[in-house]
Amino acid sequence: MISQWQLRAAFAQRLSDMYGREVPAYTTLVDVSREVNEDVLRTQGADAERLGSIGRVTAERHGAIRVGSPEEMRQVARIFGALGMYPVGFYDLREAAASAIPVVSTAFRPVGAGELARNPFRVFTSLLTPADPRFFDADLRARLENFLAARRLFPPELLALADRAESAGELPEADAERFLHLAVQAFELSPEPVDQAWYATLERISAVAADIGGVGSTHINHLTPRVLDIDELYRRMTERGIEMIDTIQGPPRWKGPDVLLRQTSFRALAEPRAMRTPDGSVTSGSLRVRFGEVEARGIALSREGRARYDRLLARVDDRAAGLPPADRAALARRLWAEELPDTERGLAAAGLAHFTYHLAPDRPRDGSRPPAGLRDLLEGGWLRAEPLVYEDFLPRSAAGIFQSNLSDEGSRNSDQQGAAYDSAWLSGVLGRDVLDPFDLYEEQQNRSLAQAARELGLDGTPG
């Protein structure tokens, strides 16, 4: 029998192999990421594995897909459910970028610490919002929804196998092989001709909308390796002649611990596609929709830490208007140094980031009673804090990656009121709860604190 985590690991590897054949520059990105990781490990030793073993980091991927209708989104949830992946977080990219990006998103991923350690594969999954009148008028909405209703992205056999795997937590080897074959096949780039006029109609609204609703299939939009030094990777990719987007999205590089998520990518490549013209003939064309993203993950911030991060971003935006990128980055580093503790212990003591807590091997053994407060337990050497990796995404960074790879900004009618979408709505669409990432980090942290308190003989959990 093949367990869910084994299915997940095999699916991630096969998807990576497939995408590398379709987009050779992705293979270069993976190779350079591996080289950088090996160099960082050689230079930093054990410190390089503070946020995950080198085995996990090297194998780690996140993918991105886009679907068009609630029914397609429900089917995606069933496929990823077979892999032990749950919807975590709600991201509204409509509000996160100046360009027209009419999608809302979630990320399917494992949630338990053990499952994440086995294989942390995650897929950022975006759903088109045809009901938003800022992007689609009534006529185009009806045409788009009819087009989406008529296509079939996932064969019934795949969905049936997915339901069996999710229910049983495993599949027999032959069924597992069939499931993996069908699942990878569903995300391959289709050779079917693209309706040129229909694609162009949607592209005038949004290139993202055209990529989702302008074709009869879906595909992997990008796969993302994890790297330990994203600035060095950016430099090496540029040296190899691969055009990167202008910036690294997310927090700046600064003297303190890495937090949240930093991302960049090479620019979307012109890929040959067959195009069906209005007279029915098929010609050769090209589309720029897929790119190669790479990420560096840091420590998960708490709700308070994330609020501080968002305020810092707003201050940078306000004060850096019109500044060149280098000056903006310098300003961000200065503000980060002013507003955030520059050590893990400082972040933990201030309650700005999430950790698991364990008894320190060299804690006091003189018979003294440990203090009740978390800060005192850390400063007194009673507890050690292990950082929790940020496993999720930043809507502004995701939108920034999308926007950086678009040829134009599309169109938006800001006089219209946007359609309302939220986490509760998406939970209803999926037929399963969209989990709150903050809750997941808090639960893991609180379990470790309660265990440490019991081992120290404390009354209550340290705060």
Q: Which secondary structure elements does this structure contain, and how are they paired or packed?
A:
Elements: E1 2-3, H1 4-22, H2 24-44, H3 54-59, E2 61-67, H4 70-81, E3 86-92, E4 103-109, H5 113-118, E5 122-128, H6 138-150, H7 156-168, E6 170-171, H8 173-186, E7 194-195, H9 196-205, H10 207-213, E8 222-225, H11 230-239, E9 261-266, E10 270-276, E11 282-288, E12 292-297, H12 303-319, H13 325-339, H14 344-349, E13 355-359, H15 374-379, E14 383-387, H16 395-404, H17 423-430, H18 437-456
Cofactor: Fe(2+)
InterPro entries: HGLS (IPR009770), YdcJ_bac-like (IPR047869)
EC number: 1.13.11.93
Explain what this protein looks like in three dimensions:
The chain has 463 residues and is of the alpha+beta class. It has 3 domains: 2-300 and 390-432, 2,3-Dihydroxybiphenyl 1,2-Dioxygenase, domain 1 (Roll); 301-341; 354-387 and 433-463, no CATH class. Helices cover 46% and strands 16% of the residues. The protein has 18 helices and 14 strands. It is globular. It comes from Streptomyces mooreae. Its EC number is 1.13.11.93. Belongs to the 2-oxoadipate dioxygenase/decarboxylase family. Keywords: Dioxygenase, Iron, Oxidoreductase.
